[in-house]
Amino acid sequence: MRTFMFLSIVALCSAKSLLQNEFLHFLAEHDVMQQDPPQNTSDIIIQPQTPTPPPTLDDLSFTCPLKCVCQVRVVQCSDAGLKSVPQRIPKSTVMLDLQNNKITEIKETDFKNLPWLYALFLINNQITKIHPKAFRSIKHLKLLYLSWNLLPQIPANLPKSLVELRIDDNKIKKIQKEAFKGMTFLHVLEISGNPLDTTGIEPDAFDGVMRLIYIRISQAKLTSVPKNLPANLYELYLDHNKISSIELEDFRRYKDLYRLDLSYNQIKDIENGSLAYLPHLRQIHLENNKVRKVPAGIKDLKYLQAVYLHNNDISKIEVDDFCPKESSIKKILYSGISLFGNPVKHWEIQPASFRCVSGAYGVQFGNFRK
Fold it and tell me: Is the Cβ–Cβ distance between 316 and 347 less than 8 Å?
């Protein structure tokens, strides 16, 4: 994963500062470069090989499309008022930036002569339609950003070489059957900001997707935790939805999760035992919900380091809510527990309640204000 991200940064270094800043912000926000390695060698992520385009006359002498700026194998056409994909893009192009334009449709032949394309950015256009054969000749595409468009569904026949797909803030209401068929290298999927509810994710939508480790479905219309996402997820973000409760079977499938975000929902109840399926969890976000007590099972998560419970309805902290009675059960001490914005009276809490927290500033309270 680190190798892939390093190569991505190298490829983006020739692009406009706006794109650089956005991509580096994405890395920082998601802590991609600092993630812990997989526990088992069988979990090691395998990256598809990316062949280098052979030197051609195209690299030395080419005509840059109108309103674009071209460097060697990088074509920058953002903020140019384009209504369609420009023609005569150099064949050896590795990165094509078309963000912030007025493109409404991707035609069958738009990328026909770009076999070496590695990264394609179509962010913030007005795209409503992508031809089913538009990506047919792109065999090495790794990054595809389609955010902030008007797409009604996941495009058909996406390149099987994709490692990262961002399609947030569109009009997608449904993830259709086998939407990602054959995409065995897909690691990152961002599909937030779409009017997608739980029933809109078809049972077979992720069949064959074996290496997807990061999914964000934020700011959607989910009313419960989806139960048919890939089982090998490391990170799952479901914040800013309408989830009202966590049921016993919700996380049975996601035993590899180490980061879970359920913040900004309407969660009141978390069923006993529902967190027992997450033995490797290191960080959980439950802030800005309606949780009334510390979830049962928190204390049994031996690797859990950060718990976000601020801005809820917790009125009491029991002495064993966070720390197990047997200290040997907890393998890693908490680095942070946030409890501010709850009606709990912190002076009534026994100090032993936080005996497994590292550092004097590991617990955050603050004044409760209604």
Answer: no
Query: 44 in helix, strand or coil?
Result: coil
Give this prediction's pTM: 0.84
Q: Which residue has the tokens 């800005």?
A: 288
Furthest-apart CA pair in the chain: how many Å?
76
Assigned token pair, 247: 């049921």
Question: DSSP 3-state assignment of 235?
Answer: strand
CA angle 205, 256, 297 (to 5 degrees): 115
CA distance 2 to 20: 17
**Sign of the CA dihedral with 9 first, then 13, 14, and 19 last:** positive
The Cα–Cα gap between 232 and 162 comes to 18
Coil, strand or helix at 97: strand
CA-to-CA distance for 305 and 353, rounded, in angstroms?
15
CB of 235 within 8 A of CB of 257? yes
- Structure-token pair, residue 23: 């991509």
Measured CA to CA, the distance from residue 59 to residue 49 in angstroms comes to 22
What is d(CA 167, CA 354) in angstroms, rounded to the nearest whole number?
A: 41
Beta strand 74-76 with 69-71 is: antiparallel
Tokens of 246: 């966590």
CB distance 254 to 226 below 8 Å: no
Complete DSSP assignment for 178-236: TTTTT-TT--EEE--SS---GGGB-TTTTTT-----EEE--SS--SS--S-S-TT-SEE
Q: pLDDT tens across 164-219, in order?
A: 999 999 999 999 998 998 999 999 999 999 999 999 999 889 988 889 999 999 99
Tell me which amino acid residue 128 is.
Answer: T
